[in-house]
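Why ATP-binding cassette domain-containing protein? Reviewers of the renewal asked for a concrete example.
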Amino acid sequence: MPEDASAIGLSGSAERGRPRLSRAAPFVVAALAAAALWAAPLVLDAFAVNVLTRSMIYATLAVTVDLLWGFTGILTFGQAAFFGVGAYATAMALSYLGATPEWMAVALALAVVAPAALGLAVGWLSFYHRSTALYASVISLVLPIVVTQLIYSGGEWTGSSSGLVGFEVLPLELEGFFRLSAFALVAATLAAWVFVRSDAGRALVAVRDNDARCAYLGLSPKRLQIALTAALAGVAGLAGFIFANASSVVAPENAGFLFGTELVIWVALGGRGTLLGPVLGTVAIDYLAANLSGDLPFLWQLLLGATFVAVIILLPGGLAEIARRVWSALPIGRSAGFTPRLVARSSRPAADGAGAPLLTIEGLAKSYGSLTVLENIDLEVRAGELVSLVGPNGAGKTTLMRCLSDGTEPFKGAVSIGGVSTAGLTPNRIVALGVGRKFQVASVFESLTVADCLLLARASHDGLSPIGRAETIGLPQAALNVLRMTGLDRMLAEPARLLSHGQKQALELAMVVALEPRLILLDEPTAGLTKAERTTIGAALKALTGELGVAAVLVEHDLDFVREISSRIVVLHQGRLALDGTVEEVVGSELVRTIYSGAAHG
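Here is what the prediction returned.
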């Protein structure tokens, strides 16, 4: 049955508006910059044209570093290696095959494909499941060293330590290479600018902020990181192609660790996460270094190092922070940004709770070394049931939730969702089975707005545009009710980091409900909330289970709250399932009073 939606307070039939293209301003600025750079060789001397050609190629590389580090949070030193691979692929093809138009096209293809393939392999090694950002940075440190050593060991094929020189290149004059480099830089910067301001670009920041929450929204942060690494490696290889043609010489230093470190420094000085800051910073620093290395051959690196330290201390946001402060002081800089509207979408009919169990746990056991946390857990939960999991601290409640939502956790026994085993499934694949998880500590995207958080919660259903912004966000009515009851529907443009604790809890719950899960796992959703906020959350949960037939497993310490909303209560004690029964049976049992009184006295 097709799902219809209408805007809140408005009529309409489109569930989501078409992606909005970015405003014309960036394209106008890009066109003006391209025109100015096209005319620049007419007024610059040969030295300036030559140095700025190289600087703009390096700035294109800086854009790729900023996308990885500034937006996605991956500190990388490896872009130099991809640049060197592209440059050497170009030089070797032109040296041994010639520079006819056909072989030039082959050289271009090799310069892009070879680094992209290497980037795919490096991404796979760096971002396997459970890897950390530190591990990816270590891989990127090793990569330039390995590539440089391969160049040294290539003998006459790579020119060893002397590099390759004197090969035929594109039939362009110095001014032509300047304009080619300028066009590549403007195109790369504009494409990056459009992408990071699109809905898909929000996913980069989300991965940087909270990759675990991305996975539990059905996204694959590892896949995104691998794809981004491979794509930007290809862009770095393209820059290497232009560099090899413009300079007619390639050397091992072009792929080395020192050059990779310089790129990171240039991005930091310019202002990471701004795109324009790294571009302008790289061009300015490289051009200044070329001039100072002749006038002050022994002091220019010291001056650059001192400048780096001063900027990091005084302007942590880089040189772009100055421009940002000036821009925010202007009336146009204070104007509100675009915020999509919320629309209601029809939800699935309530599921029949009399059928087969939705969640089945058989003989689940979990240990950390010699410490047994869970032992022989058997449990079934049907659609429409709200099963509360209670017990003292250390009983294994959160560990059980982790085992239910991550099939890669090492545990014994079996867990199935709707008859499908979760063994070996990563969290995003378990979400695809219809599972949503809310964490004990509110897990949202601190750098993004409320609207962006909700948009990403719908990404696994609706996708994300890489070139524009959606005009509307289609949410199930249950999620809209949570937003309305907590006032978050009037705070869509508010950054999540500025929300109160209760508002963050409500936002996370709305994000999980927006997934339209069949089973929802909640770990102490009312922790730290006021009585009114607890009542709001309770009403939302009762509506989900009672009206929509969603199954819920709730970890909670507040027995009064549990008594009001639960259909069953399960008691965990010392890693074992001590009791499973109705609310009256469990709350009034002597065992529960003994367990909780013992925990209180302990």
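Residues 1-22 have pLDDT under 50 and may be disordered. This is the kind of structural detail the renewal will allow us to pursue systematically.
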